[in-house]
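Me: I keep going back and forth on a fold encoding question. No explanation is needed for now; the record alone will do.

Assistant:
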Amino acid sequence: MPQRSDPLKNLKTIERKSLSVAHFFEKNRERIQLISANGLHESNREIVEKDLHRPGLALAGYVGLFTYHRVQVFGNTEMKYLKSLDEDARAEAFERLFEFTIPCIVVTNDTALEPRLLDIATKYEVPVFYSRYETTKAYYYMSDFLDDQFSPQTVIHGAFIDVYGVGVLFIGRSGIGKSEIALDLVERGHRLVADDVVVVTQKGEGILMGSGTDLVKHFMEIRGLGLIDIRSMFGIRAIRFQKRLELIVHLEEWDDGKEYERTGLDSREVTVMGVSVPHVRLPIFPGKNVTVITEVIALNYLLKHYGYDPAVQFSQRLKERLEDRARRPSEDRAIDWFEHDFE
């Protein structure tokens, strides 16, 4: 019998240390309507933290808590403060920021720096970007982007499918049939997220998002057949680019000497990057319809998610029946009598 493997053991977490200002500008140019004010949008200056900073206190002269290594956001407060100063004081306050190595400046609310201030930023080779979005909205989009870029990631070998809206990740030893099960599910109307290489990203507290890689995308390898393109073959309805990871199904060969879950009362979970995910060990053997079982697993997960646990309900009914039979005997039949049509 092939040796069991655990694809979730010794997962390596990958965390990005920095990203360039050029990458930041390119990815946000459309999202928040960024415009390069001084032509330095291809700068290799590095952003090393996901948080943003409003430099109001630094402009006023207090730099003790100036987190200069963050993207600096100039909203109405900063712009109105600068306008309240005379020309020389305004230039002095603004130039004070460049005593530190700041990555870039984003000016929101469709406002602009006056030419003298823009020249100072250009002299220190600091990119300045303008956004027509209001500060709150621009702040939200930039924070969301940076949070995603600096989120921890890991790579899991498996097949990731959206089954009835539930993100199901199949894992198991190489060659056990993960891709074939995924293909069968796609043919039944479910949606492929990734096959073979699944990139899992931690988003916020308790949320894992899965996607494929830019190279593989929605290609799938079927042993004996080769590579197939799910999107071209089944259409756009058969794929997703991302999905929340909600359930892990571990496929393994049937072992007569092993005990398997029979009632479902003992819920199992595994930890991926500190997040607990429901875990099902599914023994398989030739002829077993794993596709239909997977659909049932997904539907059962949805029932539990919305407050109905079949195993708990059955256990409660069994307990009530045993207590009732202790008081009086009863027939072990689901109905009291058969109707006359005998269908």
Remarks:
- The longest helix spans residues 310-327.
- The radius of gyration is 29 Å.
